[in-house]
User: Fold these one by one.
Assistant:
Number 1:
Amino acid sequence: MHAYRTHTCGELRKRDVGSHVRLSGWVNRRRDHGGLLFIDLRDHYGITQCVIEPDAAAFAEADKARSEWVLTLTGKVMARSDDTINSDMPTGEVELRIKEAVVQSVAQELPIPVFGDLDYPEDTRLKYRFLDLRRERLHENVALRSKVISSIRRRMIEQGFTEFQTPILTASSPEGARDFLVPSRLHPGKFYALPQAPQQFKQLIMVAGFDRYFQIAPCFRDEDARADRSPGEFYQLDLEMSFVTQDDVFAAVEPVLHGVFEEFAEGRSVSPAPFPRIAYDEAMLKYGVDKPDLRNPIVIADVTDVFARADVAFKAFKEKTVRAIPAPGAAAQPRSWFDKMDGWARSDMGAPGLGYIVFEEEAVNTPDSIPAAIANAMETHGVAKKSELKHLRFLRGKGPIAKFLTEEAIQELARLANVKAGDALFFSADAKKNRAALLAGAARTRLGRELGLIPEGQFKFCWIVDFPMYEWNEDEKKIEFSHNPFSMPQYDREKFLALDAKDRDAILGMKAYQYDIVCNGIELSSGAIRNHDPDVMLKAFEIAGYAREETERKFAGMLNAFRYGAPPHGGTAPGIDRIVMLIAGVENLREVTMFPMNQQAQDLMMNAPSEASLKQLRELHIRVVLPETK
């Protein structure tokens, strides 16, 4: 018999009754029922109930065991009686009658219990992550991560992709976040950078003639933590393809993502391919964000023209972009609920407020009693002629803004926003269109949650396409890249090369072959058809304020390669951590990551970052200058 186990703790079934077996694992739970001692033994694969009588030879040894001690137990598999079967456990029809017990390891008093699912402070969980990982929920999440990666890898290979690894020590690149720098011992004063993404390398792989590349790539960014973004490092499904259009990339990625989500959906629905494609401008108008949650049925409307009309007296919205956010069924909410929404807009979003109208239905009996404005609006929009109207039901508006609006304007707002009696309509207004969209998008998300409009059990994907190539930085008064600097602009090549400073409107109106894939409001990846033309690339960076000499220096490897024949190519890089987070149904990446850092980018278990020794600093020709303390 094997020294430690003949079976795992999740393996025994009724078919094994009568067998002599050996199990090894941790004491998940110990129960002393007077005449019998029960030990639930746990390993990676599951739990088996083990039992021993007080007069058994091994009882004294088994009785020593406490939570998380490591034991090896040998004995006979017995069938449980009908009234003691545990249908919640795969091994619940059998138990091990202990004949031998060996203590392999003793556990001190636990800082966090492993049995149970109570929540504990994050710092405690991270400091004792090895204990936290023994807990059932987190253990299953991390095991799920491995299965998801294996599924992705298999699907990519089936699609004809080849896996390659790219360097970890490389040069700094403007990917949009701070680099982690690594000092060079052999080259004093110079530094490597850990890759924010394998962007340049995967493009060079295409130039080298490898047609379809992928890897599960580690990426490093010195940025602040969020629930959906780990500080320090993360992993992505990095891929690149040659001789492809944007549609070709979509056609390759969709089966992989749909397939892996469907494989682990456990009854949840997954968007069928092809996924919806939404232009960036449309997304910002309808959803107020470039990563919309399509489970939320609320669609934002542009009502700027209504408030610009001469017969509308609400001055606060004049000469502003105004977005209307429907709130289905919200008319039944108390006044305090509307005040709470307004307070949220002021405190959390820094907005002047969030105006609203509540819509009620009113009936009139004869055409003559219909308000003239209502009848005119009906006739203008082809609903019906006044002479044909009998028992009409129309909408009345109530609320702080309604008194400033004509009947015709109220009906027009209802029509544009597609609201009905019993609904409410909130308004976001700002002199700057992007700020009006931002508040409207946040209000849409909040209303979807507050009103219970977002269904569970769905994965809704979409592509956001046609991102702006450039944007205006108001603080620095300059043009800069909007998304990915390595993207191909959607612009005639010769006209692009001829652009100069006076063509600001054309530059800011330009779109790029850039795209994001989004699931349930979570951005999984950004991608693009790449700019493989050296002249266009130099011009693109020049427009964003980079001197040609600087671009040549920063991207010498890629530009030089492009000058020796580069294929048209493109790709994307869905985040592994976010994919697993969605599939596992958790809201924080730390619940699907083996050894994450805390919010301050510290590894509490390994005490990193830590101070370097003087010897190490001397070898690297580095002196530490700490910030002054006040």
Number 2:
Amino acid sequence: MTTNPTTTDTVTEAGDHSVVLRVSDLRVATTAGDEILHGVSFALKRGEILGLVGESGSGKTTAGLACMGHFREGLKYSSGSVSLWPRGDETAVEVVELDEVAVRALRGSRIAYIPQDPALSLNPAMRVGEQISEVLDIHGFGSSESERSARVAEVLGDVGLPGDRVYQKRWPHQLSGGQQQRIGIAMAFAMYPDVLILDEPTTGLDVSTQAVVLDTIRRMTVANDVAGLYITHDLAVIREISDRVAVMLRGDLVEEGPVEGVLEHPRHEYTQMLMSAVPDLAGRKTIGDGTAGATASVEDVVDEDASDEHTTTVLMDSPLLQVKDVALSYGKAQILDGINLTLNPGECTMLLGESGSGKTTLSRCIAGLNDDYSGQVQLWGETMAPSTRKRTNEQRVGVQYVFQSPFSSLNPRRSIGQSLSVPLEMSGEDNAAARKSKVEDALDAVRLGRSFYHRRPGDLSGGERQRAAIARALVNAPSVLVCDEITSALDVSVQASIIALLRTLRQERQLAMLFVTHNIALSRHVADNLAVLNKGKIVDYGPTDEVLEDPKHEYTRELIDDVPKF
């Protein structure tokens, strides 16, 4: 594999005074001595954003964190340089050579970082306004408390949130995931940094919120001459936000250049493969067929012992899953307001909506994880108890849930194999050897392989952890799979393989899916039907093509307009 980009990067030539941060021949290794970054070089310019793309495990986050002089546990700096030119200074600072005190002073003031998970940047015991104010206090912003208070209100407005005192007094748990992420972005922008490292910051955001955040990042980057490094697996977002793009593969930077040139005329075969795996709203291509590396065969993912059971259930008259007049409120807040939908064997309905629309609440009601609702959830015509604890074993096995965060279903203290064995143990099926065999088959089906049986979640990349979580839901051969944002953390090629896997399961097992997401671009690739949720109500519902081509509600039209165009 070549270690040099296939496109010449003129930005990195010496003497370019617009360069704020330059990474030169950076090598990073594990503490055991295995090199994982193989001489990576790139430069960040004032007022521009470099998109850094690659699959999970490619080294893109490691390279991004190195720009802040940070190396995760188990990793160490080997050689190369990370040079920062602060404003007004003629001499560059070598970031990787700074002591801990100096590098801490740099972070948050000159170099800011926005993580993928807002939980990593927000303190659950502090009000959100105080958290932004704390950044200003630590780095000595302004000359008075009133000046700092004005900056807090201003930066909240910049990221599309209310800047008033009432909103600032909210706790993180009172905000949706998208709102939490925008607080993290506000904290990063608060000090007007020179360099902004963004690690998948819009992954958890719906398309409307994502559009606001991307516009904010783009506008503030240009207005404040900030140099941005945008780490992501979403090539559609890269096209929206970046001036240049660099592609990483297994620790090597394999292609770099202007975003239009690289995305429209990719030279490296890996970049070409990534492009082929990107979902498009028009559905002009079928993702996950060969080009995305979807290698799971029917034999890998279908349990032949279950085939007769599923064939029999297809013949029943009742819908497989039916939601009838489901409503839920917390005090005066109406979270769900009379939801009705059905799922038949082998059918997939996408539940689409922005953060706070109620889509996760509804999916948890269906799975029995939230029992505060009124109305009915029926499986094969039989009303299930609201709580999963009171449902029959057959009902619990029949409806399986895949969480957005894989840590919700994987115990960090247990091996992957142990975590995946739990559903089989709880259902009382098989002996230990048979359970292990089913777990290994599930690991193969999601492209991890049975060698992952003895590994722990902490040893896996984000994408690998999510695939393990999906495997955990599949081991019991459910009838209904509730997928809550399960591809939001996956790079496009792994996402394509997961979609191909789910497509195979639907066809061969007649597995029904409720696919909860904010990623409308996946709709034609995933779903037969599309249900659009807005403020607890379904405002558009029908066959996917009909909803996309002739949306009845203004909210749906706005969502479609906000999708990044690729």
Number 3:
Amino acid sequence: MLQNNDIQCAPVVIVGAGPTGATAAILLAQYGIRSLVLDRWDGVYPQPRAVHMDDEVCRVVARLGLADRFASISRPAHGLQLRDQHHRVLAEFRRDTAPSSNGYPQANMFDQPELEAVLRDELMRQRSIELRGNAEVTGVEQVDGRVHVTYRDHAGETTTSVDANFVLGCDGANSFVRSTIGSRMEDLHFDQRWLVVDVDTDADLKQWEGVHQVCDPARAATYMRIGATRYRWEFQLLPGETAAQYAKLAAVEPLIAPWTRGIRTDQLQLIRVAEYTFRAQIADRWRAGNVFILGDAAHLTPPFVGQGMGAGLRDAHNLAWKLAGVLRGDLSPGILDSYQQERKPHARAMIRLALAVGRFMTAGGEVGSVLRGVVVPRLGLIPGLRSRIVDSSTPALHRSPLVRRRLGPRSLTGTLCPNPTLPDGRRLDDVLGLGFAVVTAVPPTSEQRTLIEQRGATVYLAEPGTELARWLRQRRTAAALVRPDRTVMATARRPGDLLAHTPRYRRTVVLPHARED
């Protein structure tokens, strides 16, 4: 017999404690916003899924104060090889493993359960976050500007109700929260069944330390090294095949043989074999009233460009500071509409890129294979294409109340501000704090500085010859208004011209690396 506990209250209820939900909770905690995180599992989901994170998303992880811990469980990838069905290298696109302008390597391989364990540990350290596992949300109802959430505690067989100002649905592809707001997934017409194989071995496979994409219309495949001893393969399943047929190492060996020749069977430990259906979908609406959806609840992308999990962290980074501003009274509630305005077109663009790569790998049959053999080796000869292929930067955000009109293709608005190492050894992100900032190559007057700082923004002067000064000069501007998520909101020729665009946004005393021990 289920029992009902007394109604409780929380400013924000987050449904789902995966990477997206955990990131949102930690970011809110940095602004002093309390949250209740509900997850249907008691602990970290043990199966590895995501394995790639680009430098832009690494910057979000650093914002959580977890840069060093993530570096300890990840390894930079060296780029991309395109191979034919006989594993001959058609083209190789090397990627520099040194930190990019965002401050981190452009491609980083990791094991998702290890990352989730780091995030869970950080959740537990924050006093303003309450995490409840074994909690299945059964009701989300909006009444008089509040959200009434009901969940079932499977451990104690009780039901509990919580009233919240906002609810964030980070509950995955089969999102219950999405269904409660009447949002539907738009099918972008991609549906492929793939086999995912994870292997652990101390043996040296003697493979190139990057991602291998096998462009085979009969059996496309991907190979990645994701740790010191961990390796991931993905193979397109043939009609009628299932993961059950590959449950044992003996069945998997013929598939992975091109990479493991010379390695004894007893040197390989099969960690997991699973079947995934790679889909491309995007929700038609990401918000209804005070309920939002993030991560896989809002979009599903094939993994060909490694942006699935990262898109969810981008969602959390985009929304958390806006939500905190509304709850603190700094921003008007209408500003929250910018979340979908900015994130949905960006997510759609990344899904389309993944679709293009996936279809390139698998389409065309034998004719497609012949064409790839002719065209791919010549891709690097096209001016600018090689650098674009290895460039990890993603599209600029679309115009919104928090992204001013873009003035030409070289405009900075909607793009990320660089994150260089400064003369004192710190990264720019750490210096700018958690609010708005004006980065300028033109010294502001004392009055301008005072007026900007009265709005809660930081003023950072880019010295001549520095990376920041060159960044501004190359785009023919002198000053940039940078949002808390490091997106450029507006640019001007004089820092004082940005005052009219700078919202009042209170400074916070909680630093990104601080923990409430």
Number 4:
Amino acid sequence: MPSEPSAPFFPKLFKEVPLQALLVVPFVVQTVGAVGIIGYLSFRNGQKAVNDVAAQLRNETSDRIAQNLTHLVATPFQAFESYEAALRQNRIDLNNGRDIEKFLWRQLPAFGNLSLTAFVTSNQEFFGAERQDGAIAIRTSEVENNRALTTYRTNSTGDRLEVINAGKPNFDPRKRPYYKIPVQQRQATWGKVFPHITGKTMYIAPGKPIYNSAGELQGVWMASLNLSMIGDFLRSLKIGTTGQSFILERSGEMIATSTGEKPFRYDADKVVQLPEQRVERLNAIDSKNSTTQKTSQFLLEKFQDFHQIQTFQQLEFSIKGERQFVQVAPFRDGKGIDWLVIVTVPESDFMAQIKANTQSTILLSLLALGISLGIGILTTHWITQPILQLNQASSAMAAGTLSQAVTESSVYELQELTQSFNRMAQQLQESFKTLEQANEQLEHRVEERTAELKATKDEVEMALRELQRTQTQLIQSEKMSSLGQLVAGVAHEINNPVNFIYGNLGHADQYTQELLKLVQAYQTHYPEPPPAIAQQSKAMDLDFMVNDLSKLIESMKEGARRIREIVLALRTFSRLDEAEVKSINIHDGIDSTLIILGNRLKPKPNHPGIEILRNYGSLPLVECYPGPLNQVFMNILSNAIDAIEIAIEQGKQITPAISIHTGLIDESRAQIRIGDNGSGIPEAIKQRIFDPFFTTKPVGSGTGMGLAISYQIVTDRHQGTLSCRSQSGEGTEFVIQIPLKQKLRH
């Protein structure tokens, strides 16, 4: 006789639980839980998207600021190079103050970012040219005027007219930072920020000391920048909706800000002799702008000192409960500038749409809950009604004669029910055995299917990686195509006027010489000219013009020739946009790339110039895609320059050089080898250099796609090979092998 079944577990916890509740409550709980999880994940994904967008916005803004600053702070040193060239050509007499000021007056329009440029002599004299109200004025402090800093209005040729402003006597520019610091360091370098003599703005200027052949100091060139230009640029940037940016010195003093706040304070009531003494630098933590002040305080609390921030930082903090995204990027030019570029964006600029989406999600969740509850009630009613009817019938049988018939009477229906129950139990046991076997087979099939799905997943992941690589390559190709079109257009537009200028310089030189001969003949026959002619000759400084004119024309010829070389290089390199196979001279593509990279090959204060060793063999014209192949040269040469700069920064004693060898392997293939004498590549890294997105450069300095794209261009588009030979500490060489002629694939 079967044993009496044990009592179920749930009645121990709940004495009476309606079946309808057991069906409806879990259904509702599952629905609420699923909707809640989806809503939470949606909100978290929104926040992650905000973080990503904010990081991208901060990166782009910092990059734009760094690019503008790089261009801006390079302008004074470009001016110094121009002045040095004039000295070498004997176009300036440093012992003649009028000669110096007129030269600077003529040179200042060529450097639009400069506000004031001057030469300070070692005996306390000052000769300079300054932009004032759309014109260029002369500003001097000479022995003749008791060294009072005096400003003159000028005529169209740079001659002095009336005095605009005369300062107090005995002005000593040698006490200014643009003189003291370069003289102490004996090289061109930046001075400290200083106020303009009017006290209405702030300047920063580098100086370059000039020594004679005996090593004696003759004076210092200076060229100043107005800090308001940096502030104007920062205000022009669109940083989200309410984002801000500002630039600090390591001392915490402001350089510029996008809020329009001046980086200094001017106390008009302060009793001093000079207006510039009323100026006081503004510290960022004392800013009237709340965001600027709070951000600076946060950075000081986190790093204790602004000098501790030596690397790129992306941080977060809160102002009155509102999260702020902050990015700090050091900016250095290698000549004395060491600033911090700070970009801050509030989270509220991005959260409005996310909050709206969250509200919509909550409303939809409530609607889904109501619908689920209604469906659950209808479903449980449909299930429980037949069970209640069966229960009523069973209760009637248990209370009547049928129960007795089961044990005592021979009622046919009860006997059939008992036999059916016993047969059912036996069938269930057999069914369970069959089910176990089927379960084993099912588990085996599940394992096989799981393995198939895993293999499919690996294929999908591989396809996604390939798609991502292709997408990045397409973007890079589009960028390079646009660059090629832009460079070709610029080269074409520059080439026509340059050819016109260069072609006419010879005629201008010939005509000038003829006119000078005529003047000399006139002076020979009329040594005593009329007073009017003699006065005009003296006013225009005829002797100086005769000596300087030939030098000017030669300088113009040299400049025009240099521009033509650069235009030719740009036109050669602009083949980036050519999409068809063409027969080209490989050496032209390499040379044009080297010209474009010429600025990176020049000597710098912290390391010497990089020598290019060309070992060109005899190569026929090669059928290839010129643009993509030039892109390969650009990537490999840029990496070679990076490797040499890193080796020098690490203290390796080398003579920087890049060697380029070309030649034929056989009658059907050409080989190009580009090597550097940097620190080399470790074996573990060398095995991955052609992998997409692999890079050892700092964040923001490389995408990891340069060599991967170069490998694809050489191997896929040109059916060639690209390999790397390198040992740690012994330099690196990339070897390109491509066929001379074959049917290339698009």
